[in-house]
Amino acid sequence: MTFATADLIDDFDAELQSCETQFRQYGGKSSFSGQITTIRCFRDNGLVKRTLNSPGEGRVLVVDGGASLASALCGDLIAKAAVDNGWSGVVIYGAVRDAATLATLPLGVKALGSNPRKSAKDAVGETDVPVEFGGVEFKPGAWLYSDADGIVIADRDVLA
């Protein structure tokens, strides 16, 4: 289903939060949506890899990487696993790598920037906890809608 976040704000303003963080678009899908799953981690993508290698069922993974650009939390192999497992998109409050390849994948990927450096793989962090950045609380089970204008969050699927 197609949507525009600006139109969603016009139609459902009282129900939506708008993320103020200015992300860069890296994935091949510029518009994506789905229920939120969350991870909080810092310079360690073990939980990201584990999660995106599990069934996505159209969900969006939101990763609070503490805004660190020191190492990438997602690259081409993990993003390809996300596609293969049915994830709609990934929003990373941190860095990605393999940007040229990410742009070819049918996956929404937004991040603060890119860095070729690998992260640790110890799976240190938390899953399915509320995370906050850009003036928004991303709660597991809420709905995320993302396009070229930005990211909005709703407690329910406003497109249903």
- Percent helix, as a range, is 10-25%
Any idea of the CATH class?
Alpha Beta
Structural class: alpha/beta
Termini gap: 10 Å
Number of domains: 1
CATH topology description: Glucose Oxidase, domain 1
Regions with little confidence, pLDDT below 50 for 5+ residues: none
Rg, please?
14 Å
| Structure annotation, total helices | 4
CATH architecture: 3-Layer(bba) Sandwich
* Secondary structure: number of strands: 12
H/E element order: HEEEHEEHEHEEEEEE
Major sheet summary line? 10 strands, mixed
Under CATH, the homologous superfamily reads Ribonuclease E inhibitor RraA/RraA-like
Q: How would you state the average pLDDT, rounded?
A: 97
Strand content: 25-35%
The general outline is globular
Pfam families: RraA-like (PF03737)
GO biological process, one term: regulation of RNA metabolic process
Catalytic activity: 4-hydroxy-4-methyl-2-oxoglutarate = 2 pyruvate; oxaloacetate + H(+) = pyruvate + CO2
Subunit structure: Homotrimer.
Q: Summarize this, please?
A:
Mg(2+) binds at residue 98. The chain is an alpha/beta fold and 160 residues long.
